[in-house]
Amino acid sequence: MPSASDLPEIVMPPAVDGRPLIGIVGSGIAGLRAAKAILKCEADARIVIFGDEDHRTYNRPGLTKKRYPLSDALDMTIAEDVKVHGAENDALTWRLGTRVQAADLRDRILRLSTGETFEYDGLVIASGVRPRTSVWGDGECELHTHRTLRGLGDARYIHHRLQASDKVTLVGAGFVACELASLAREYGCEVIMLEALRRGPFESVLGERVSMALGRWLVQHGITFLTGDSAKELLCDVRASNPVPSSGPPGRSLFIEAIGSVPNVEWLHGNGLDLSDGVRVDEYMRVSPWPNVFAAGDVARYPDPWTAGNLTRMEFWKNAIDTGDLAGRSLASALGYGSVTSRIGYFPSMSTEVLGLRIQIAGNPKMSDSMETVCGDLDQPDQGVVVAYLREGAMVGAAYMDKGARFNSAYIKLLKSLRGR
Hints:
CATH topology of the largest domain: FAD/NAD(P)-binding domain
Largest sheet: 6 strands, mixed
């Protein structure tokens, strides 16, 4: 880590007017919500948001949710559809297309990809995650166009390819993979899903029985779903296939990896932080031992309010909103604007839709040691099935699958019990 004297001239002036200068690294929803929380606390501060992409905050989960009609304006349509209202905020300064390459938390300095430096009084780390890859990312091999999906640019490319009704191979069976499989079928594509490590979708969250039932649902709806050795045989190694840029010659099928994510923490190395799985924070989203540094969103690993003594890192939209709000309020309080009395109390809840089947998950099912079917039949998830997840007899999670709302009241009853435990 370079010393302050080794860094280029500081281009953002210090707070000579008495107003603290706050840097937010990450232009996603967590960073935006942190900024808005600071402003709501009436902190008389200047806020600068740094983002790698050229776009202000947009709805990342929306990138896999909707099929678009054939149009020359597809790029603009997608961008407008996932736009987050409120990102056009005149109280904020946006430095888009600008990567923060390094941080000196002791001297409160960020080093930017432009060669500039930024001196701050308070910092929010909301740098998010990037897709995990088994090879070296986007490129071409002899058979496939290799892609991942994280940003708006990725989504534009993939939607263009799906509109051409290409054959698509998806590696993984998590939320992104299943939503992309559903979307590809809507576009009329032939879909192959490969899950070499588990028996079905969402197994790490919902367990083997529910996962296998969801795997059968995929097959019933025209998806070739392969697991274990059958999946491994079709995995593709770009390194062994002389990759070329993904703008190479047409005709190759689309091969999308959706096998998890990696927290963007490399720029924080050298500051003595616990970066083993994201950025470790306390229950107020504070990054110890720095009283003026906080983290939020996908990159933050915080004390799990559901399982005492454990840390958790959640990659869901609601989690980014809740932790962003708390990080912003905590930072404002650290600067003397208001006080923070509430700690992280995030109630995990998420939902998705796969081939018309709505899947809702609440609590923390993966902490369970047993499960029971409360309503319905796992072999007929479209007719409604509610599952309770237990640990030592106490409920720690719930899931509901249905094409309608047959057992919605039963699920709500479980949620009330779950929240009140």
